[in-house]
Amino acid sequence: MQGLIKQALIILFVTFFTLHTASAQENNLATNCSFKDSILVRIDTTNYTVADFLWFYKKYSVYGLDDSATINSYLNKFIEYKTKVAEAEDLQLDSTRAFKNEFFKYLKITAHERMYEGEDKKLDEFVKMEYDRLHWDYEVAHIFIKSNKYDSPKDTAEIWNKVLQIKKELENGKSFETCVQEYSDDNLSKENNGNVGYITSMVSPYEYENVLYNANVGDIVTARTADGWYFIHVLNKRETKGAVDAAVILIYPKSEDSTEWHNARLTIDTVYNLLTDGYSFDSLSLIYNKNERLRETNGILGLIDNGMPYSKEIKETLFALENDGDFSKPIRLPYGYAIVKRRWIMPLPGFEAYRSGYEKRIAADKSRCTVINSFYENKMKNDLHYIMYGDELEKCMQYIDASILLGKWTKPKLDKDAVLFELGGESYGRNDFFDYLQVIQKNRLNDIHDKDMLVRIRFEDYVTRRLEFATMRNLEKKDADFQYTMQEYHDGMIVAELINQEVIQEAAKDSVGMRFYFNQHKENYMTEERTVYATIYIKNPKLHDKVLNMLYQQQHWYYGSKTKAKYANKMAYYESLGSPQLYILNIINAKTPNAIDVSIKEPLRLPNDVISEECSLIQKCIMPEKIADRGDSLDVTYYYLSQRQQTINEAKEQLLIDYQQETERIWLKSLMKRHTKSINEPIFNELIHLN
Q: From residue 674, how far is each of 78, 92, 333, 419, 660 by CA, in Å?
C-alpha cells in the first residue's frame, strides 16, 4: 500500500479532468444551493447527497477552462468514480492492515494541518515581532526567584507566597535594590543591585522579554519563566545602537592578589598612553594582549550588539565611542582591564537579513519554540472544555518509584481508576496515563533527576497527545470539509489499488492482447525524424570488409528488405536509442575488443532542398545513405528523413500505457453494468437550474 496515495491522486486527475469547465460555474452551485442534504445519486445501496456532489464539483471544476463541458458531464464522472469505489469496497480493499496503517497516517497528517492551520503565518508574524523589538534596547534590573515550572504544588505555592511578599514590600515603598540583596537568586546581577544593563530581543526568556516590551520606563513588572519568577525594573529605553565591529586589548592579573591587580593596572595605563601617543592599536595588541587568539587577530572581536553575551561594561563603552577608530580609556572588568576600539559600525539590517537566522534561533530556543504550539493547544483546550484535576496527578506519585528514571518502571495493578482530566466531555484516567508512561519511559530524559518532575513532564506530553487525538475525532464528527478530504483519501487509495489489480497488472501480463492492440494501431508508433553523422575507425584492417557488409545490411533493412529477424531486432533496438551506429560497434567489439571505434557529430536536421538533392534515391526511408570508404575509417551519414514503423520492442513503453488505457476502458464498461445506479432527476434539474 506504500505510495498508493500518490497513485490515487494521479487517478483522480486522469479520471476527473478528461472533462473541463469554467471555474465560475461552481460558485453559484456552492453558495446558492439550499437542498444540499437531499439524495442526488444512489449506487447499489449507497446514497450520495447533493452536498457530496457539490464538494466534488467545487474541488475539481476549478482546473478546467473548456466551457463546453456541463454539470451533466461532471455528474457522469462522479457516478463513474463512485462506482469504482463501490467495486473496491466490495472487494474489501479498505480492510487490509496495509491500507489501515497508510490511511491512519494520512489521517493524522491532515488532522494536524487542520489543528495547526496558519502556523507558518504565525511564525512569520512572530519572527517579525522579534525583529521589530530589536529596534529598542531596555536597561533593566531584576530580582530572580528560582522556581522550576515542574516543581511540586507545595514548592510552587511556597514560591508564590514569597513572590506575593516581595510584591507587597515593593508596593509599600521598600527599595528595589534592597529587595535584590535580600531575595534575588541571581548572584551575578546582585553585584550591581540587579542591574543587567541594556538588553534587546532574543536575549532573555520569551516570557521575560514579552513582559518587558509591554512595560513603560519606571515600571516594576513580574514574569514567570520555566526557571522561576522575575521582578523586572524598567530603568531606561533607547533606540538600538546597531552593531559595532570591535577590537580589544585585554590585560588580566595572574591571580586575585592585589599586587597582581596593581601590576595589571600599570600595564593597561601604559598601553593607553602609547595609544594616545599615536602607536598602532594592532601593534600594541600583538605585544600586550594576554589572550593568544586576540594576539593572532589584532584583538578583533567582530560585530557586537546588545544581543550578544558580552559584559555590559564592554558593550556600553563601545556604543559610547562616536567615531570609527576611537578607543576607550581603560575599563575595569571582573576578570581584568580592557581598552576597546570601535573599528566601524553597522546599522540594523532589514528584516529579510534576519528572517532565516531568527527562525533557526526560535526553533532552538526552549522558551520560544513552544509559543505558537501553546497558542493552538490552549485554543483546543478551550474548544474541548479541558478540566484538570491536579490533586489526582500528585496522588499518582506514590505508585511511581525512581526506577522510572532508568526506564525500568513497571505499572502497578490497581483495582480502581482515578480521573486526571476531562476533555470534550470524556474522562481520562490514571490507568491510561500509566500505560503511556510505561511505554514512553524507554525514551529517557537524561537531564532530569527527580522522578516526580519527570512524571509531570510526561503528563504534559500525554495531555498534548490526547488533546490532538480528541481534536482529530472532533474534526471527523463536525468538520465537513475534513470529512470530505479524508473520504477523498480513502476513495483514492482503494481505487488506486483497484486499478492496479484490475487494469495495470492485467495489462502488463497480457502480452497476446498487447500485441494484437499494437497490430491494430501501428500508425501510432512511428519513429521521429533526425540526422546523425558518424565516423567508424577500423583499427584492425581485417575487419574492414565485415564492417562495410554490416553497413550494407543496415542499409537494406532501412529500405525494408527481408533481413533476418535477429539482425532486424538488433538494428531496431539501437536505432530506437537514437544511436544506430552502436549496432556495428557493439557486435564487432563483442568478439574483438576495441577493434573499431565510433565518433559522433552533433545531430542535424537537413533542409528540404538538401534532402531532395542528395537523397533522391532514398524514397523517404531511413538509412545510412552515404558511406565514404577511407581505408582505415568509414564516414557514414545516417539520414532520418521521414518516419518509419517502430517494432513492438521500440514502442513498448508507450504501448504499455496505451494498452492500460484500453484495458481500463473495457473493464470500466463491464464495471458500470455490474452496479446499479439511479439519479434523483427532480433534484438534479434544480441543480441545473441553479447553474
A: 17, 17, 90, 53, 21
